[in-house]
Amino acid sequence: SGAMDPVRAKRGLWSSRLAFILAATGSAVGLGNIWKFPYITGENGGGAFVLVYLLCIAAVGLPIMMAEVLIGRRGGLSPVNSMRAITSHEGLKPAWRWLAVIGVLAGFLILSFYSVIGGWAISYVGTAATGQLTGQTAESIGAIFSGLLSDPLTLLMWHTLFMALVMVVVARGVRSGLERAVSILMPALFVLLLVVVGYAMTTGHFGQAVAFLFQPDFSKLTTSGVLVALGHAFFTLSLGMGVMMAYGSYLPKDISIAKTSITVSVMDTAVALLAGLAIFPIVFANGLEPGAGPGLIFQTLPLAFGQMPMGSLFGTLFFLLLIFAAWTSGISLLEPLVEWLEEQKGMNRKVSTLGAGIVCWLLGIASILSLNLWSDFAPLGMFAMFEGKTIFDLLDFLTANILLPLGGLLVAVFVGWYMSRQALESELSMSPTVFSVWYRVLRYFTPIAVAVVFVYNLV
Ligand code: PHE
Ligand code: NA
């Protein structure tokens, strides 16, 4: 659509395939891999859950990532307006753009609690740097963590710092330095995970952890576990909320969407599995509970750093790198909303960032309180499926398990059933066989899988 071209030209493109991969990896690799993946794996019994998760990545996540990048590149604008441009170009109902609105909303809700967990990571930099982890027992490490959770003001301070870090970058709208940093700091995070895996091998429980992660015991798999695995595939790959559309809009035409999407998915999965291999040997060696919940990495990794040589240094570096990974994800959570406010409402970037950021920060306070003062408050507790869920739990559940899969389902239906096949072929330019595999998976497998999981869990 010609009318859009001046806007597009103003936005510029990624300099290379690498620049896109770095930005997309920066978004994908984050707390989802290192904090969330291990604890939900522990809660859902290990191997069978991991297998379902890997299947969801390959057969649902990857095809949808390609579809989202494709929408972004075709539209060349922010997610909502890319949808608007494509629907008008292809003569489809403009209501489809609501798909991107769901995403923008989901990103905003996720950021509110993501920032609180990012704050935990900030707090552990100080704990590790001052040597407080050295020689501690599992009990005393557990006490440090529950001490943090019971202290709303400290949590608020770190949550505020994390949000401020995110807002500064989004307000400036320039990320080139950050993308270059991804190319150094992500490999560094990977290496530090390897260091912890190395330590984990000395605990004598590595084999048990490998068996826990990779030997499926289907008696431990529940329908709600399948929903969690599916939801996490969306969460960890940053899908269902327009991030990959936003980043895809900067992707030059001659770059393969399939190859770049595969690269990002593989890297994301590698980091998650490595985190699992780092954490579970420590869990078993110390007689901890794999299903301990959201605190799992903060109760296990500090033990490793407290026992290994140069642990204070490694621990400090590790949590710094974790903050960086969370920061690049946080930026991508806020970006689609700010871009939309800018384009749509004609607001200036600084004002939109400030407004959206402050509301998000306020909402984060509800998550902070649900860790302590409001820990018994379950607003939707009258429904069996939400029993005992705090505001924090509800936000996590609503976004990861409902909004993101729903957004992804709509993307699959829109691209698979409504966009013209010719448009898809020209964007993807893959061999006809690979194209038709992708097309079939997207049209049939993905929507049916998401719908079946939804129906089993919600009805
Ligand atoms: N993928 C990020 C992570 O795993 C979280 C995220 C979700 C970021 C959705 C953007 C969009 O930590
Ligand atoms: Na991730």
UniProtKB/TrEMBL annotation:
Its main location: membrane. Pfam families: SNF. InterPro entries: Na/ntran_symport, SNS_sf, YocR/YhdH-like. It is found in: Membrane. It is a multi-pass membrane protein. The keyword Transmembrane applies. Keywords: Membrane, Symport, Transmembrane, Transmembrane helix, Transport. The chain crosses the membrane at residues 18-35, 47-71, 98-122, 155-174, 181-201, 221-250, 262-284, 313-334, 354-374, 394-420, 441-458. The keyword Transmembrane helix applies. Belongs to the sodium:neurotransmitter symporter (SNF) (TC 2.A.22) family. PANTHER family: TRANSPORTER (PTHR42948:SF1). This is Transporter.
